[in-house]
């Protein structure tokens, strides 16, 4: 049969989608990007916040229309929303033929054929007053995680790939439903990850992006202290890889061994993605985050001392219950003090099944939006100033391919820029056919446009040091 899959949400969800596509292809099914031509449609959903849930519902309903007027014979819903609202989805959208939660990824082939009766086990929707991270009676928490032998059909460009080194989460952040949806933290064996990295390098992958709910917790669940640092050093020795990037680092689990490996290993990008969520101690305490403003100040100083030239990315949540204007001013000052390279600001979403759901959602939506806009305006101003100072510098970039804005402009990235979530470098004054996606180029930065940079290629003879490899630029 022809299978069409729509993947929503984060890169961790994308890896699950790639595994499902790989399993379907291994079973002999064909794949199509045209929903109207698909015999079976799969929607891999996200349910982290309200906007993600709405996008998931809208996409399911859109795909359901193909059962009425297209070739589609089966509609399958997978992922976080399926894990969270299994029974409700089947009841409210009768066009759905099968529902697979986050722990049932291997069941996709049976769901496609209809041979496996679903649901495999019944889950109840979490009650609003239930323990936020405890299974509801009769509910099994997911335990699945793929390995190096699991087939994957990659949805990313050929030159980079995400590798999920662990699944699940053990933290109890008040705003987060992920531990319930994804289960307890469980690390993959290092041997499996390294073997997968070799296979990816053999197929031409240049950039490896290591992901999990908390990447710096890797190995701790297995009693393996220092496991992430050892893994980085092993991956650094994989022939063919050029960049190794860490995403989703939890502030309380960044150890000196990991920072030392990042500083020592030439392939490991000097880039730290650190979701801090807030900088007001009172808000952090209500969020049940194990950190303080003072602790974060010390951590960021330590990171910059141990990894010179490191690029820092973080995310914050505004509008958490009880947040005051004074709390937001603390956050503004924190952002101004630390000159982050990349900042994302999200408005708080009141999610059932979390401990924060018992708190009054007392910050109006309009106020949340204004606070977010104010912080993003501050960050834009700070970044624009730093980006303009980079004009005239030279760097090494990875070419991602043609820009969507113009056929004669190429889109590329510094080592300090992750795909999809960060700004880009746009290459002009060049023949686009001279650079293929996945190739590295030496460039001179000639202009800045808010977050983005504009550059021109340099000849190797111009004596350009590979600054991008060390994350200096």
| Share in β-strands | 15-25%
Please state the average pLDDT score: 90
Give the termini distance in whole angstroms: 48 Å
Number of strand elements: 18
Flag low-confidence runs: 117-138, 461-473
Q: Please list the strands of the largest sheet in the order they lie side by side.
A: 2-1-3-4-5
Largest sheet features: 5 strands, parallel
If helices are DSSP runs of H or I spanning 4 or more residues, what is the number of helices?
14
Classification by helices and strands: alpha/beta
Shape, per Cα inertia axes: globular
Oligomer: single chain
Our Rg estimate from Cα atoms comes to 23 Å
Work out the helicity level: 25-40%
Description:
Helix 8 (190-202) runs parallel beside helix 9 and helix 9 packs parallel to helix 10 (256-264). It is built from 14 helices and 18 strands. The longest helix is centred in the last third of the chain and has 25 residues, at 365-389. By secondary structure, it is an alpha/beta fold. The strands form 5 sheets. Strands 2-1-3-4-5 form a 5-stranded parallel β-sheet, sandwiched between helices. Strands 14-15-16-18-17 form a 5-stranded mixed barrel. Helix 1 (11-26) links the parallel strand 1 (2-7) and strand 2 (30-31).
